[in-house]
Amino acid sequence: MANFIAEGTFTAIVTPFCSDAQRSVDVPALKRLVEQQIAGTIDGIVVCGTTGEASTLDEDEYELVVSTVVQAAAGRVPVIAGTGGNSTAKTVATTKKACQLGIDGALVVTPYYNKPTQAGLIAHFEAVADASAVPIVLYNVPGRTGVNLLPPAVAQLAKHPNIIALKEAAGSLEQLQDIIGRTEFAFPVLSGEDALCVPSYSVGGRGVISVMSNVAPALTAALYRNFRAGNIEQAARDQVALLPLVRLLFGEPNPQPIKMAMHLLGIMEPVARLPLITATDATRDALAAELKTLGLLG
Q: Is 163 contained in some domain?
């Protein structure tokens, strides 16, 4: 499925951990999560991204998580793996390893901490794309990385034949529109903000890489499908209805709340790895009430 279309609803899945002292990867829960997502009619799965706590996985665990998701998905939906880092050489090596594990695409975040220039970002992404056997999805999330991939740089990178889309999580509709305009609506831009799904679709966004869809895959997927089908008012109403859930999911550092929500649904333990911790009781109670309101929890 290497020629997948970067459009629709992609879930940035969590990595389930057991409640043992090591917080070991919970492989059965990970498989349950993949099945739940496919049953929820999402269009693709993103594994080992920010929400997947990839920065806390060692190399063996990373390979275990990616290979488990690839095998569980079994070609039913494309699997994109987060492979980015703040070293170009290491990002290339991680991308090559993930390619060997059978992924369909790689999500590559802007290098964090070292704050490269726009020219440095272009050189970084081009080097990774040149070395990758699968298509690259750029990932811009300046709130976490300390660097913003600006529209002129995106327009330059969009010309690379192996760079097929952008996950835009700067939180600015103005910047998103600038990118779409500079690429003449020909380069898929996926929202990285659950609160801005339908607003981004209204200016040419092609979908979302979502945290919310971990817990509400069918509802999140319906936002894009309704919009594309012309049911714009319904999509807008559903977006507004989901806003309280979105606020709760980001009321503590991601993925603490989404893991608690998944625990409430009986899919996994709510534990995260340090320096993240388990979501508070207040968040748990608020999530339970909102999930009941949305009909997701009995």
A: yes
Residue 170, number of CB atoms within 10 A of its CB: 18
Which range marks the domain in which residue 185 is found?
Answer: 8-234
Model pLDDT, residue 271: 97
pLDDT tens-digit readout, 227-258: 999 999 999 999 999 999 999 999 999 999 99
- For the chain, the residue count is 298
161's CB contacts (< 8 A; 6+ apart) are none
* Cα–Cα distance for residue pair 62/221, rounded to 1 Å: 27
**Active site annotation includes 62:** no
DSSP codes of every residue in 253-270:
STTHHHHHHHHHTTSS--
Q: Is 242 inside any structural domain?
A: no
Beta-strand relationship, 44-47 and 79-82? parallel
Domain at 67, CATH number: 3.20.20.70
User: Catalytic: which of 62, 97, 112, 139?
Assistant: 139
User: How far lies 148's CA from each of 73, 111, 138, 171, 182, in Å?
Assistant: 33, 10, 12, 11, 17
Give the chain's domain count: 1
Amino acid type, 167:
K
Kindly write down the DSSP assignment for every residue of 71-99, as one continuous string: HHHTTSS-EEEE---S-HHHHHHHHHHHH
> Would residue 139 show up in a list of annotated catalytic residues for this protein?
yes
Residue 269 lies in a domain: no
Across the chain, mean pLDDT equals 97
pLDDT at 4: 81
**pTM for this structure?**
0.96
Query: pLDDT at position 5, please?
Result: 87
Position 146 scores a pLDDT of 95
Q: Which residue in 62, 96, 112, 167 is the catalytic one?
A: 167
